Amino acid sequence: MVAVSLFVVLALSFYLTPHVMGFGVDHVTTTAEHRTVDLPDGSLVELGAASALDVQFSESARLVKLRAGEAFFTVKPGDMRPFTVKAGGVSVVVTGTAFNVRLAEEAVTVAVEQGSVEATMPPAETAQGKMEPVVRQLGAGEQLVARADGTIEQGPVSPGEAGAWRRHRLHADGTTVGEAISHLRRYHGGWIVVTDGNLLRQRLSGFYDLRDPVGSLRAVVGPFGAQVRPISVLIIVSAP
Prior knowledge:
A hairpin with a 4-residue loop joins strand 4 (about 50-55) and strand 5. It is globular and about 55 Å long. It is built from four helices and 18 strands. Residues about 1-20 have low confidence and may be disordered. About 20% of the residues lie in helices and about 45% in strands.
């Protein structure tokens, strides 16, 4: 009975999650779905799997809110209104450029393919003891990762890999296993449960095929000796 109850709960979760996430949201995608959205100013958004996006344009501003998942923005130049993308506590302001934003529980990631952006993060204490917003400038070939624990990582990224998911590739470069699994969850039509918290903090680099999330999951955790056990729609990842 416990097993049956668990299966029913999981099944309802799979069915309800896309509907709940899409309620009141302008644009939403489901598991493994990619979609292109034309914005009113001529800019383009490529919306990744299991993602949600709100668009709020006015006479003075262009605001897009990434509610979940990932999106690649190609912002049309020549419009004097600032173009702002908000994802969690991070705001990215641009005029005309191409960049990727990923929102996950573990971190918000911004990667720039062309042009430059300004990323503003929640206030942090300065050397003088004041609380001020953290502002970082990013140019083409740069990536910023603002983690939930308050740490910020900024470094190079190949411009061609800033939105690698558009070519069905997960690009990991010093990424934690937890972040990689969070990405793969959006391409797997089921649940992925990890029983070893230490595994999630391990780091890895490589390329993984989003069209084969289970095979990619094995490739992600295999080097750390973890086991992947599919049980119907549930996948359990455990320590050796």
